[in-house]
Amino acid sequence: MPMFYVGDMPDWIATLSLIFGGCCSNALTLEQLTSQYPQSGTLITFAQFLFISIYGLSNLLTFSPLPRLKTRHVPVRLLLLQALLLCLVSLLNNAAFAYHIPMPVHIIFRSGGLVISMLMGRLILGRRYTLLQTVSVLLVTTGILLTTLSASRPKHSASPAEAGPETHISSYAVGIAILTLALVLSGLLGIVQDGTYSRYVRAPAHPQKQSSGSVPGKDAANADAPVPWQESLFYLHFFSMPMFVFLRKDLASQFRVLNAGPRVELSLPIPHRLFPEMSSSTLSEHSWMLSVPAPYIPLLLNTVTQVLCVSGVHRLTARVTSLTVTLVLAVRKAASLIISVVLFSSAGRARMDERGLIMMWAGAALVFAGTIGYSLGAGSSGRQKIQKSKAE
To answer: What's the whole-model pTM score?
Structure first.
């Protein structure tokens, strides 16, 4: 488990604020957009990656003596591998909305990253886990099964024109398969990122010498090197952009659907400096009217909040192991679930019956109880290793 120091408190507060504020807001805008346009997953992912690449470029550009990118910490081959995994995970997660996957189930199912992290840690890295950790993972697995089954119980419609239950279940199964593949790739991405940061970024910690926003191992003398999390944020999204060339037909069709949606009129005030000869009272009575498709507003909000969300996640990844990142994100998903179901409960109840809601909440409780148990088990295991090393 990571060690906390008073000097690091501002950076931890900023990191957690970005994760909980940005990611929860992002989940709300994503639910609003995908509930009306469930087939727009590829376009949403493209907009997110493009916006983040532009934002990340501003942090890595230097103009001395000519415009160029700052010196990298990590080799290109590892960045390309992470970019491929990240792009696939993002595309698969957003594509699942087209297969009748409700947002609460989407959130809880992705909490299964804890299970994947444990399995991959044991199979690939040869790690051992305590009894408390193993039991906690079983709780999480049971919770995920209950939650995913809850949404496969839709209310029976009185309209015979609607598709039958077999069609719904078949489509739902495809969506779950997509999320399962995304979960496996996400676990693999966590292992690759953990190994990359451990080798090229982290070093024996000297927390008292760190400044806010830095990470252990950051060489203060190397002013040309970017902050590691900013480097990862940019390259992983920028290197993913060429992959959308293969999805250009889907992007074009989804863009046409959003562009054909209902339009909204936005009133933009006229700046006084553009027309100094006109009085302020006259200008206040006039404004520029801009007509834009209504879906563009939640799409823009989603891309902006995604920048905040992934910035917090990358800051956290640069400091701690993939296990700790998974735990923090699981707690964040709990907050998103509460906001989604409690504040927008009418949408959730419209998709499932009363028994389905009970199953979903029971599954959510097991997932988060297992997450807490796993965290306690990891902390106990870490302390035992420290005591053993001291004894030797």
So the answer is: 0.73
